Amino acid sequence: MHLEIFLSLSIAFTIVYFIIPRIIKVSLAKKLFDVPNNRSAAKKVVPTLGGIAVLAGFFISLIVASDSYNVNELKYMLVAIFVMFIVGLKDDIIGLSAKKKFVVQLAVALYLVLLGNYRITDLHGIFGINEIGIATGNLLSLLLIVGVINALNLIDGIDGLASGICMLISVVYGVWFLYAGDIIYALVCFSLAGSLLAFFLYNVFGTTNKIFMGDTGSLILGTIVALLTIRFNEFNPVSGLAVHGAPAIAFAIISVPVIDTIRVFAIRLSQKKSPFAPDMNHIHHHLLRLTNSHLVSSLILIAANGLLILLAFVLFESLGNNLLFVLLLILGFTLAGIPSFLVKYQGKGIEKAERPKSIFAFFLFHKK
């Protein structure tokens, strides 16, 4: 079992690591790259088709590593991922309206819930609710799938953030599935983690070989993470590993993209704008103004997500589902508001990132 996990990681990493330079070469030759605008964190031309490599590494690794298992239950997931890949690819190459993308996302979510049986049936006592009806479960499942897809798409704004967060999510879910006896979904997680690790290296540390994942990557990541979250909530482990805290723990695992999305939607609605209107109010935008570093900003958010996950697993037995969920919610939104507060306090502009003026902020955010 551990050999198969190692295979899934190593095969995915190797494929992505060697495919990306070829994708970059073709992208530059065919002018398939991202042209920076006033909302772009990047300021130079960069190819945006990294999602192709991530998908190739994920699919091939999963097929090879799971050869001795019956993976028939994954067919709905794989079809949905491929459909979202096509949508993202079209958007990256020729563009696609937000409305059309949303319609496809909703259609894919309906397919997964109604045919793939990816649905929430139990809230495990959160706010006193356990088993829920089919209609309510279907509605919650649709909301979760579409919401997480868009959340991962929205946080893909600076180098290393979407891939780093999803690496963390996939490793946490993967370890849990592995020791809970769900080897198939453990292989899904580690195949994804291996692909993202190779992509992360090019995305963050690449110079002449830098690449973005584009919507091609972020849409498939959102789909996978959403389905892993539903699986985590619904799976009954053979090992006896507790799952009754699933809703609160799952919220902690996907907390950064979910909190950021709720936060920016609330800001836009308060300003009487469409919740889908693009702006520079994401947490990562504020951190970037403070740190002037994509890597540092991403690592801060990944560490914050990791802290919430750690608290969820450590405190669940003593606090219980309800109190833990409320605590995570309060702590998550409090942490999310700190970068915005510091930006306003220091009077930083929207377009130009200045160095922190206070000694405290200097040691926290100074880029050497």
Structure description:
- This protein is mainly alpha-helical and 368 residues long.
- The protein has one domain (2-365).
- Helices cover 70% and strands 3% of the residues.
- It has 13 helices and four strands.
- It has a two-stranded antiparallel sheet. A two-stranded antiparallel sheet has the order 3-4.
- Helix 6 packs parallel to helix 8.
- Mean pLDDT is 88; it is low at 348-368.
For this entry, give a set of tags:
two-stranded antiparallel ribbon; 368 residues; mainly alpha
Give a concise summary.
It contains 13 helices and 4 strands.
Total tally of structural domains: 1
Q: Note the total helix count.
A: 13
Poorly predicted runs of 5 or more residues:
348-368
Tell me the Rg in angstroms.
Answer: 20 Å
Helix content: 55-70%
The secondary structure category is: mainly alpha
| End-to-end CA span | 43 Å
Oligomer: single chain
Average pLDDT metric = 88
Report the major sheet.
Answer: 2 strands, antiparallel
User: Which sequence of SSEs, written as H and E, runs from N to C?
Assistant: HEEHHHEEHHHHHHHHH
Number of strands: 4
Which geometry do the CA atoms define?
globular
* Strand content range: under 5%
| Order of strands across the main sheet | 1-2
